[in-house]
Amino acid sequence: MGSKESSPIGIFDSGIGGLTVAKAVMEALPAEDIIYFGDTARVPYGIKSKETIQKYSAEITRFLVSMNVKMVIIACNSVSAVAKEVVTEAAGELPVLNVIDAGTKAAIQTGKNQIGVIGTLATVNSGAYKRELLKRDDSLIIKSKACPMLVPLAEEGWTDNEVALKTLSIYLNGFKNNGVEALILGCTHYPLFKSSIKKVFDDRDIEIIDSADAVARAARSRLKKTSMLNTQDKSGNLSCFVSDHPQRFRELAERFLGREVPDIYIKHLQE
Amino acid sequence: MGSKESSPIGIFDSGIGGLTVAKAVMEALPAEDIIYFGDTARVPYGIKSKETIQKYSAEITRFLVSMNVKMVIIACNSVSAVAKEVVTEAAGELPVLNVIDAGTKAAIQTGKNQIGVIGTLATVNSGAYKRELLKRDDSLIIKSKACPMLVPLAEEGWTDNEVALKTLSIYLNGFKNNGVEALILGCTHYPLFKSSIKKVFDDRDIEIIDSADAVARAARSRLKKTSMLNTQDKSGNLSCFVSDHPQRFRELAERFLGREVPDIYIKHLQE
Question: Complex ipTM, two decimals?
């Protein structure tokens, strides 16, 4: 096995929400080593200007490249929306995947015509999912809804209590009464609400598209196609780097990752 | 009137929540000019390390000093908890007030013995209110509760709907059943929930202490004592500076300020 195949996959996000993507990648590609970077010192990106997000994304990509990754996965929707070109440039020859492209492709593959998108205010306002979907099929009918309360709910651990269900029911009310057939979860935190979302739609048949799963499948397919799969017969390692050590980090990280979190390293980026 | 009396009051916060403090100061001191700085590029501070918060606070204080303010008010609980010494040093000769000291003094003045404190996770975990209260009266019984959902609720504009009331009822449940007689609102966003909090306590008699009002009263008293009141007979000006222009800024700012927001200037701090 050459050195490139055994290199880790780099995944980054503005914070720790992207660990849902790390989790999906670990499930799809259990032998791969992963280097995760969460920019916890500067989270959230969603409210920052495009220029600031691009600058931060380039810094992080250079860090991942310096760690000898073989692929970069943008787990952050805000970065995917406004900085994928910057990341691709900073990544040089390395393949770069992102949650918006992957989620969009997965939505198209469902064959459904009416597609709903939920995300943070920044992601929805960027119009990135809508734009990418229409680029692939301009006959689609797209309806979007920003759901700003879902990230704090997920971080509070309230994903299926009365407050969560009432909040989801307010946000998803419009989708319940129109013809939406598939719903893209356009935010790294949202996979935690999958079962509550199903509850809110109760008997309505709706396909839920998880961008984390979608980008993990895309990564596996790309690595296969380029003969870059890690063929070691043990489980891959996950190394977590964060730019600051936020409170409750471990508790939150374990919630998003769905398992115990290994060692966490602090990596300060230039300021 | 000397030049110092006519100088503005500087108020700063990690974001725009501190506009509730600007509002309280404008009500208590209508003739004063105010320079407000919200570090919207780097909000939230609560999850950042002490060193980072201190560095940012010193930068902002130097900016306010360069704007010739006559007083610095720290509207941010996280800064008040970990950086008031740093701000005092950067402010040189200028008086520095902060929401924690002011809220604490106001709580003592109620004469109540059992005091509740609500705030963000960072403020509550810092123990700053508890420490300051016990320093003034070690016979007090203090009970604290972090309420992480209240900031996003306020920013979503959900301060009295079903979700807000249910959330408050979960957070305040402990206070309802113990002997708490006064409740400190230890976060700039919380004044927006005053009437909903009263609803949740329904017949329980509880005194609500708003740190924004408290620091405004403290500012008036300090300016009077030092003959530094602005005696102009027109309303003072409010100038708003932010380090980045976040989405929905104007809408949010108007909600916190309770009136139309004047011109907003972008002031980039060093990075």
Answer: 0.83
What does the pLDDT average to over A136-147? 96
Task: Name which residue leads in pLDDT, B61 or A4.
Answer: B61
* Containing structural domain, residue B194: 100-211
Whether residues B93 and B218 share a domain: the answer is yes
Strand partners, B37: B12, B241
| Cβ–Cβ below 8 Å for A47 and B247 | yes
Q: For residues B205-225, give the mean pLDDT.
A: 95
Mutation target among B42, B167, B271 for the A interface, most CBs of A within 10 A = B167
User: Rounded to 10 degrees, what is the CA torsion of B233, B234, B236, B239?
Assistant: -150
Among B191, B220, B233, B229, smallest CA distance to B208 is for: B191
CA distance A28 to A230: 12
Query: Is there a single domain that holds both residue A206 and residue A233?
Result: no
Q: If you measure CA to CA, which chain A residue comes closest to B121?
A: A247
Q: Please compute the mean of the pLDDT values over residues A112-126 and round it to a whole number.
A: 92
Task: Judge whether residue B2 has pLDDT over 60.
Answer: no
The span from the CA of A114 to the CA of A107, in Å, is: 10
Pair of tokens at residue A100:
């918006």
List residues of chain A with CB under 8 Å from any CB of chain B.
40-43, 46-49, 52, 121-122, 125, 148-149, 151-153, 155-156, 158, 162-163, 166-167, 170, 244-248, 271
- Domain finish residue from B170, B187, B211: B211
Q: Count of alpha carbons within 13 Å of A131, Cβ hemisphere only?
A: 10
**Cα separations in angstroms, B221 against A227, B97, B114:** 73, 11, 27
Longest dimension (CA), chain B: 54
Within a domain: residue A271?
no
Average pLDDT across chain B, whole number: 92
Q: Taking all residues of chain A, what is their mean pLDDT, rounded to a whole number?
A: 92
For A242-257, the pLDDT digits (tens) are 998 766 778 888 888 8
Indicate the pTM of the whole model. 0.86
| CATH number reported for the structural domain that contains residue A106 in this entry | 3.40.50.1860
* pLDDT on residue A7: 96
Tokens for B152?
A: 């996003």
* C-beta of residue B237 within 8 angstroms of C-beta of residue B30: no
**Spatial contact of B25 and B9, defined as CB atoms under 8 Å apart:** yes
Residue A103 has pLDDT above 70, yes or no: yes
CB atoms within 10 A of CB A145: 17
Smallest CA-to-CA distance from B18 within B195, B266, B252 is with B252
Please give, rounded to a whole number of angstroms, the shortest distance from the CA of A269 to a CA of chain B.
11
- Least confidently predicted of A9-13, A241-245, B149-153, B159-163: A241-245
Give me the residue label for tokens 């500076």.
B241
The Cα angle at residue B47 between residues B146 and A237, in degrees rounded to 5: 115
Which among B17, B1, B36 is positioned nearest to B237, based on CA atoms?
B36
Whether the per-residue pLDDT at B6 is higher than 80: the answer is yes
The answer to whether residues A123 and A206 belong to one domain is: yes
Quick one: DSSP state of residue B25?
H
Do B136 and B177 share a domain, yes or no?
yes
